[in-house]
Automatic annotation (TrEMBL):
Pfam families for the chain: BON
Coiled-coil blocks: none
Biological source species: Varunaivibrio sulfuroxidans
Domain called BON: residue spans: 62-130, 139-207
Protein name: Osmotically-inducible protein OsmY
Amino acid sequence: MNRNTFTPSVFFSTPLRRGAANGLLFALLALGGCTPLGLAVGAGAATGVAAYEERGVDGAARDLRITGGILDLWLRADYHLPAEVGLEVYDGRAMLTGQVHDEKIRTEAVALAWKVDGVRDVINDIIVTDKGSLLDTARDSWITAQLKTELTFDKSVMAINYAIETVGGTVYMIGIAQNQGELDRVLAHARSIAYVRAVVNHVRIKRPS
């Protein structure tokens, strides 16, 4: 098994435009992801991949529960929150990204994230702005996909230990690097991609064993 292989996130890791969440949920159901067989296969694949991560199977499962808890609170408070705010949870640290039009939305998203058991830190990278377009969203998705591909094929990087979001041309990263050299390679990859304006690093370096 290639330890650098990325697997699709179970939850919304990238903020979606208003109305897009319904379409995505319908598509997932249509693909059979919520059938007993689909869930079993998905859980098995996730467990196998998590075994190669620095956080391990237990850590990945804990982060998955935290992600579900945050999304549940967001949905209960405002149906559109998961469509506007991106969420990545790694080792109990919740990284919130996205662009919202109201400071109240950002404040609410952060406050609700802190309420979930197991959350050790909430990183607020949400931007309040009226700017943004479908072209920007498409470009951000392209940047994220391009960076993930480069990291996956870089044999000197354990890509599975990184979670990535791109908003407005800014790349946000969280995870665990094996050492400073690996982190430097990851940052260099991110900065070399077209349309990237800035890179915000929340990655921690692995503690010596």
